[in-house]
């Protein structure tokens, strides 16, 4: 039951955060007041993997400093984004996200500019993970 709660919880929060973030970014770029956000069905299995990252870090690095854990989360999210982006790109010819316009990208599926986002998401996400465990 706990695995199901974690999986559904991270799919829900991932999709929600992505739609909110893309609607804000769209507004900043185009000033469109409709606040259009988007996501992709490809994201469901990717977000379903995220609780396993939190399980790994909290199990093996639970007593470590938040800085070390943030760095580990950041690396893990980069790895997940890289592997899933390359797999989807190989399957359908294009990744749901594309960082080609970013200066420090690798194969257009990850970019260095997102490092602070993944670091913070790891630290805040751990609190959400602990909350879901308590349900």
Question: Can you tell me about this structure?
Answer:
The model has no long low-confidence stretch (mean pLDDT 96). The chain has a two-stranded antiparallel sheet with strand order 1-2. The protein is mainly α and 135 residues long. Helix 1 packs across helix 2 (43-61), helix 2 runs antiparallel to helix 3 (66-92) and helix 3 (66-92) crosses helix 4 (115-134). The longest helix has 29 residues, at 2-30. The chain contains 4 helices and 2 strands; from the N terminus they run αααββα. The protein has helices spanning 2-30, 43-61, 66-92, 115-134; strands spanning 105-106, 110-111. The chain has a domain at 41-134. Strand 1 (105-106) and strand 2 (110-111) form a beta hairpin.
> What is the mean pLDDT?
96
Order of helices and strands: HHHEEH
State the end-to-end distance: 10 Å
The computed structural class is mainly alpha
Strand order of the largest sheet: 1-2
Largest sheet geometry = 2 strands, antiparallel
